Amino acid sequence: MAILSIRIIGDPVLRTVADPVTDFGPELAKLVADMTETMEDVDGAGLAAPQVGVSQRVFTYRIGGVEGHIINPVLENSEDFQPDEVEGCLSIPGLGFPVRRFQATKATGVDLNGNPVSVEAEGMLARCFQHETDHLDGVLYTDRLEGDDRKAALRAIRNANYHDITEQTTSKRAHSVGSSFGGGSFGVPE
Ligand code: NI
Q1: For labelling alongside 165, which of 14, 96, 100, 108 has CA 20 to 30 A away?
Q2: pTM for the full model?
Q3: How far is the CA of 36 from the centre of ligand 1 (A)?
Q4: What does the pLDDT profile of the chain (190 residues) look like in tens digits?
Q5: C-alpha of residue 133 to centroid of ligand 1, in Å
């Protein structure tokens, strides 16, 4: 397994709609294993394949001791919303804003062997699934902000020197993300 480097906002792969996975071979198994290891290394709550430069519909998650992956996920969201919680993103280091998300969701997809999976999620896990599935559609959580939060986020992204951050090692960056978000997340502060 290997720790993968995480792509930072500004990288076009984060703005590309990812392709459905069609090849369930050893390369996919390695991708899922490497993404899981990378997510653990940065103490993240979730990671989507485009964040490691792979434009395929795969994400891993790790919430409340529950870890897994879903390939080609489709979400069925509840109609009601959960209370806004601050989200961050490993691809937008050092930033966090409250985001509106559906209270519950049912994620349906397949595992790395192509077997069907279906996970019903509420609260933080539902939030994670929505955040990670957005990544597969080229959407970042900052796109979902409105009003002053949106302005503040765009200003912070403009002012941040993400070019320099990209040149740091993954572990150094993980350290700063961890301190920003109390060890969380995709990242949600804990
Ligand atoms: Ni993210």
Answers
A1: 100
A2: 0.88
A3: 14
A4: 799 999 999 999 999 999 999 999 999 999 999 999 999 999 999 999 999 999 999 999 999 888 999 999 999 999 999 999 999 999 999 899 999 999 999 999 999 999 999 999 999 999 999 999 999 999 999 999 999 999 999 999 998 877 655 555 444 444 444 333 333 455 544 3
A5: 9
Q: How far is the CA of 51 from the centre of ligand 1 (A)?
A: 8
Is the distance from CB of 7 to CB of 13 less than 8 angstroms?
A: yes
Which residues are marked as active site?
132
Query: In angstroms, what is the span from residue 80 Cα to ligand 1's centroid?
Result: 22
Q: Which residues pair with 110 in a beta bridge?
A: 71, 116
138 secondary structure, DSSP code: T
Tokens of 106: 């049912």
d(CA 131, ligand 1 centre) in Å: 6
Contact 43, 126 (CB under 8 A): no
Mapping DSSP onto H, E and C, the string for 62-101 reads EECCEEEEEEEEEEEECCCECCCEEEEECCEEEEEEEECC
Domains within the chain, CATH numbers bracketed? 12-168 (3.90.45.10)
